[in-house]
Amino acid sequence: MYKIRQAVKEDINRMAKIEEICFSESEAASLESFQKRFAVFPECFFVMEFNGIVVGHINGCIFNAPELPDALYSDAKLHCPQGGYQTVFGLAVDPQYQNKGYASALTKYFIKFSKNCKHKGMVLTCKDHLVKFYEGFGFIHQGVSASTHGEAQWNDMLLTF
């Protein structure tokens, strides 16, 4: 049985490890990045546990515009607690636990959390193969992103509440 909960400081190492496994080296947030971000916006980090083991996570800061500029990844101080848009920096599930609906469950949970916080919407960037996944939650594909994060091509996605 799985459980989604707010992350605690002790989860950071495991979140960083899952991130390292799921993303390329140039795209993955480092342990240091996780620590800096968690210090500024811990309320925006959630983990999924399966039998007491953290198997996935979702996180992102709050921003004042419906966009996800690359600067947000490197500067946690750009978090805008009163902003209207929840960003998604990362959604990752340990490969041993993938294809069980856990990424969907984390996404739904984060959307519900964001709505309960009275945000205007949620923004993220994703690779081409994930556009349909996010459209399934109501995200609208805004086109190819200006982001050069991890030297990859991304798509801007927006969910308006």
Mean pLDDT rating? 96
Please describe the biggest sheet, giving its number of strands, its sense, and whether it closes into a barrel: 5 strands, mixed
Total beta-strand segments = 9
| Low-pLDDT sequence parts | none
The neighbouring-strand order within the major sheet is 4-5-7-9-8
Which fold does the CATH topology refer to?
A: Aminopeptidase
**Beta content:** 25-35%
Continuous helix count: 5
N-to-C span: 30 Å
Radius of gyration: 14 Å
Order of helices and strands: EHHEEEHEEHEHEE
The secondary-structure class comes to alpha+beta
Shape field: globular
* CATH homologous superfamily designation: Gcn5-related N-acetyltransferase (GNAT)
CATH architecture: 3-Layer(aba) Sandwich
Portion in helices: 25-40%
Protein name: GNAT family N-acetyltransferase
Keywords: Acyltransferase, Transferase
Pfam families: Acetyltransf_1
InterPro entries: Acyl_CoA_acyltransferase, GNAT_dom, SNAT-like
Supply database-style keywords.
161 residues; five-stranded mixed beta sheet; single chain; 9 strands; N-acetyltransferase activity; SNAT-like; alpha+beta; Aminopeptidase; four-stranded antiparallel beta sheet; 5 helices
Kindly describe this structure.
By secondary structure, the chain is an alpha+beta fold. It has one domain (2-117): Gcn5-related N-acetyltransferase (GNAT) (Aminopeptidase, 3-Layer(aba) Sandwich), CATH 3.40.630.30. Helix content is 28%, strand content 28%. The protein contains five helices and nine strands. Strands 4-5-7-9-8 form a five-stranded mixed β-sheet. Strands 1-2-3-6 form a four-stranded antiparallel β-sheet, sandwiched between helices. The longest helix has 15 residues, at 102-116. It is globular, with a radius of gyration of 14 Å. The mean pLDDT is 96. Keywords: Acyltransferase, Transferase. Residues 2-160 form the N-acetyltransferase domain. This is GNAT family N-acetyltransferase.
